[in-house]
UniProtKB/TrEMBL annotation:
<dbReference type="InterPro" id="IPR003718">
    <property type="entry name" value="OsmC/Ohr_fam"/>
</dbReference>
<dbReference type="InterPro" id="IPR015946">
    <property type="entry name" value="KH_dom-like_a/b"/>
</dbReference>
<protein>
    <recommendedName>
        <fullName>OsmC-like protein</fullName>
    </recommendedName>
</protein>
<dbReference type="Pfam" id="PF02566">
    <property type="entry name" value="OsmC"/>
</dbReference>
<dbReference type="InterPro" id="IPR036102">
    <property type="entry name" value="OsmC/Ohrsf"/>
</dbReference>
Amino acid sequence: MKATIDWTGNVSFKATSGTGHSVQMDGPPDLGGQNLGPRPMEMLLMGVGGCSSFDVMSILQKSRQDVTACHAELEAERADAVPAVFTKIHLHFVVTGRNLKEKQVERAVSLSADKYCSASIMLGAAGVEITHSFEIRAAE
């Protein structure tokens, strides 16, 4: 896996993945940024959410659950000192579908947390407290 980061002025950078997808990252206005994109730590948090969401949906689809939507809400806390690393991350999944089985959703979230999500497992190994929860909503 590869990526490149190119400075685009002030505290703004263009990140390009090895597959050719780009995202603009920017710093806060008080540091010269123009709020043109997410901060790098926000990208890291979004990466954890994307990684885990990918796992949860894959597992639910393989278990033939009729999912119509999967929404992940992430909340993180950071250390007060430099480096301001993540100390806690909570992922809350809202899974919507028809006749969803609670055990299947619980299993999917647990498997992502404990076995498959490389991003959250890596951060957990570095000392970040990572927790998960979920709720199920019936599709209309």
